[in-house]
Amino acid sequence: MIIGLTGGIATGKSESAKYFEALGAYTIDADAIAHELTKKGMPALKELVKCFGKGILNPNGTLNRKKLAEIIFTDKQAKLQLEKILHAYIIARINEIISKKMKKYDVVINAPLLFEVGLDRICDKIVVIWAPYDVQARRLARRDKLNKEQVEKRISSQMPIEEKVKMADYTIDNTGSKTVLAKNVRYLYALLTAEKK
User: Fold this and answer.
1) Contact status, residue 196 vs residue 1, Cβ threshold 8 Å
2) Spatial separation of the C-alpha atoms in residues 138 and 118, rounded to whole Å
3) Could you give the CA distance from residue 57 to residue 181 in angstroms, rounded to a whole number?
C-alpha cells in the first residue's frame, strides 16, 4: 500500500511520518530527496544555477537554501521554475525507491506538494495533517525563526489546506500534543492495514 502524507507547512507532516515509520512503514521524505538532489555537483543544482544564477550558491559552491527561499517566496514565477526543475528529479527518485521497497513494506510518501506534482495519483490512500492557521503560523515562526510577514508569505504560497482536506481520504487534526498525534497515527495506520487484509 502507498500512503500519501501531506498538509500545510508546519502542520506536523514529518512528525507524523516518524510515527508511521515506528509502526513499520517505509517512509520517503520528498524534502530530504530534494536536499540530496541539490547537493554540490548534482545535475539538479547545475540546472538551478543556470536558471537563477550563481547568487544562490554559498562561497564553497553549495546551495544557499535561505537565498533560494527568499527568491521563490517573493516571486511566483521563480517558484514555478524551481518546481519544474526539481519535481521531475524528485518523482523519478521516489518511483525508484517505491519499486525497491513496495514488496516488503507499506510506503508512506511525505510530500508537502503531493497534489501539486501529481504524486497523489500513485497513492492508494491520502492523509492530510491539519492544524488551524494560527497554530501553523506560530509553529512556523518558532521553527524557522521568521517574522509575521515571512510566515504569511510561506503559508499563502502553498495550496490552501482546506483544498487538500477535500481531496484527502483521511485528515488528522494536529492541534494537540505529540502524544495525541502519535495515538491518531497509530489508530489510522491500524485502520488502513486492516482494510488491506
Assistant:
1) yes
2) 29
3) 38
**Which three-class secondary structure state does DSSP give residue 4?**
strand
Reduced to 3 states, what is the DSSP secondary structure of residue 108?
strand
Q: What integer best gives the mean pLDDT of the chain?
A: 94
Could you tell me the three cell numbers for 97? Answer: 525507491
What's the CA gap between 36 and 58, in Å, rounded?
Answer: 16
pLDDT(42) > 80? yes
Kindly compute the dihedral angle of the four CA atoms of residues 34, 38, 42, 43, in this order, to the nearest 10 degrees.
80
Q: Do residues 143 and 55 lie in contact, with contact meaning Cβ atoms separated by under 8 Å?
A: no
Whole-angstrom Cα distance, residue 167 to residue 161?
Answer: 10
Angle at which helix 30-37 crosses helix 76-101, to 10 degrees, equals 110
**C-alpha span between 144 and 68 (Å, rounded):** 15
pLDDT tens string 104-114: 999 999 999 99
Contact in structure between 117 and 83 (CB atoms under 8 Å): yes
Does residue 24 surpass a pLDDT of 80? yes
**Residue 99 grid cell:** 519499486
How far apart, in whole angstroms, are the C-alpha atoms of residue 21 and residue 28? 10
Q: For position 158, what pLDDT does the model report?
A: 87
Give the predicted TM-score (pTM) of the model: 0.89
